[in-house]
Amino acid sequence: MSGIRTVAVLGLLFLGGCGDQNLHLKVHYRDAAGLVPGSPVIKTAAVIGTVESIEADPRGGDLVGIEIKRSFAPAATAASRFYLVEQPGNPGKKQIEVEQGEPGGPVLAEGSTVEGSERFSGLPPFGELFRRFGDGLKGLRGQLEQFQDELRKAPDSEEAKRLQEEWRRLTDELQKAQSQAEESFKKDLLPKLEQEMNRLRERLKEYEKNPAPEKKEPRTI
How confident is the model over 36-65, as pLDDT tens digits? Predict the structure, then answer.
């Protein structure tokens, strides 16, 4: 019996030493509001781990401890991004989405601390903006065409002639304004837009190289 007991104890010790081979990391965020212990860590809609802990970072922001299942550990490399995103259908609650950079890179070491990322919301909806702009011009064009049609049908009179003359001046001004606007857009506005885009792009690159955490008062979770 003593031999059996010894084998059982050794087996339990072996299993205990090999029981947790998952990957444990710390992810720094400027603000981890919306995350709680147990929040999912996902990759392409698959749950690959969970949030274990959240604590204030003395340097500013929050440190989030996560555990990634052993089979998904290759997704966590130096090129991976750890995005803080909204949970679908769960307003106010967030989760971490791992986006792998280049597959096959070295896996992060156990206990590593990485800088988290955020997918920004509220960015300018350019497509919708220009669609509405175009709709507005269509509406104005419709009004102009309707007025011109009504003017053609007006009885021949001195007042109608004066209206027609004013209408010609108005359309001439509109054509001139359109031409000037196109020229001004090409010469003035477009270069400024390109300059500002380049400036913002450089700032974004600099931020990605040196993502300094935003300082704020530590908060207790």
Answer: 999 999 998 899 999 999 999 998 999 999
Measured CA distances, 14 to 1, 3, 6, 19, 29 (Å): 20, 17, 12, 8, 37
To 10 degrees, the CA torsion angle through 8, 14, 18, 19? 20
Helices and strands in the chain, H and E counts: 4, 8
Single out the residue of 85, 92, 29 nearest to residue 55, CA to CA: 29
Give the residue extent of every domain in the chain.
22-118, 126-209
Q: Judge whether 47 and 79 are in contact, CB under 8 Å.
A: no
Is there a contact between 151 and 166 (Cβ–Cβ < 8 Å)?
no
H helical segments located in 114-189 = 126-153, 158-184
Q: What is the pLDDT of residues 117-171, one digit of tens each?
A: 876 555 555 555 566 566 666 666 777 777 777 777 777 778 877 888 887 787 7
Contacting residues for 79 by C-beta, under 8 A, at least 6 apart: 100, 101, 102, 105
Phi-psi region of 186 (alpha: psi -120 to 50; beta: other; left: phi over 0): alpha
Angle formed at CA 100 by CA 59 and CA 208, multiple of 5 degrees:
40
Residue among 91, 85, 40, 34 at smallest CA distance from 62: 34
